[in-house]
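Batch job 17 of 40 flagged for manual review because the log was empty.
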Amino acid sequence: MRARGGLVALDTDVLVHLARGDTTGQAINAEHSLMSLPDAPILSSVVEAEVRSLARFNGWGAPKLQRLEELLLNLNRLDAGDPDIVAAYVILYCAARERGRYREFRQNDLWLAATACAAGAAIITCNGRDFKWLDPDFVPVVVIENLA
């Protein structure tokens, strides 16, 4: 499943698996050919901050950090402060609150969803439960099985 125009936005867990090169990362590459898509996958600035924080906190070594840097360089980075993304955040936040789903999402997931919504992209994640609050009419979510 892909959104309009085949655009995809990557969740933090997907980037972690790709940087590790583990079984799940290999399956993601094989199934979705992310680096071969006509349009580079979307990287939310919030997801970038989260994955860089995890890498630093967990003391990733030079090889894994190098893979992460190479990966990030090949993504289309969108800044969460972009007015269209902020507007999408407001819409998604209010929709979730109106449906009584406010406590089900975390802020970083909401920012990723807003980024995907503004760009017309689907989210690729290994943590589908993180997006159960999200109305698929706003943003489709593709859940990849975590094989690691």
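Reviewer: the log was empty due to a logging misconfiguration, but the result itself is present. Strands lie at 8-10, 42-44, 76-78, 122-125, 141-143. Unflagging and moving on to job 18.
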